[in-house]
């Protein structure tokens, strides 16, 4: 980005993450064009100054760069392709940033078919609270000049020190999938340990404090698990159906590069059992309920 004028951002996907990210783009002064399969999602943004576009193609045609933030690789492909898709409206030499948790194949196909298009993958961590507060961590894959040019856009949505250029095209997707895979594994392991310890008669607070003080400590044990232990909040801002999708993508990635992932496959099955038990819209931390049900007690401090 050069000059004083901020580029117009086209943003597609106004769910629990996209709604917060777009509000912060507006707050930072970026002109905004938005689209979502549910037009009512854009009402507050339009009232705040964003412009509505009826199709992804119109979004791309009216913007200097396009961001997609969508649930699955299939949704990303659907938004890109067809007569009303992004690729039908974006200018030659334009920029597309996919901030979805996805896989490299979709973006690779776009780059090969559209060599003049500037493409970056930039998935995020930080949950819906980070999207709302503008403190997301962003993992960017792509060419260094593009990452530098677009850093002001990323800084409007994330913490500057947590915006990481992690490698070439596709690296952002891979890093995000590995982070999710490890975080979900932390959750299942922590749920097991707390359930066993409490069932064996140890006070939950004492057990957690002991874990925090030990070599087994982790950011999950020290911080993230408190949403359940203190508030009974299983994070419905990120549905377990999406968590299962992410685990499936990470295991598919491992298979594609020839690395066995027995532990992650087991974690995926625990997540799928929780999804079957509590429904698609249950929060991403709902597998902890499986263990609470087993010991017939809620894990609360």
From TrEMBL:
Entries under Pfam families matching the protein: NAD_binding_11, NAD_binding_2
This protein's UniProt keywords: NAD, Oxidoreductase
Active-site residue numbers: 176
InterPro entries: 6-PGluconate_DH-like_C_sf, 6PGD_dom2, 6PGDH_NADP-bd, HIBADH-like_NADP-bd, HIBADH-related, NAD(P)-bd_dom_sf
GO terms assigned for molecular function: NAD binding; NADP binding; oxidoreductase activity
The 6-phosphogluconate dehydrogenase NADP-binding domain, residue ranges: 8-165
Keyword Oxidoreductase attributed: yes
Family note: Belongs to the HIBADH-related family.
PANTHER family, sorted: 3-HYDROXYISOBUTYRATE DEHYDROGENASE-LIKE 1, MITOCHONDRIAL-RELATED
Protein name: NAD(P)-dependent oxidoreductase
Organism: Umezawaea endophytica
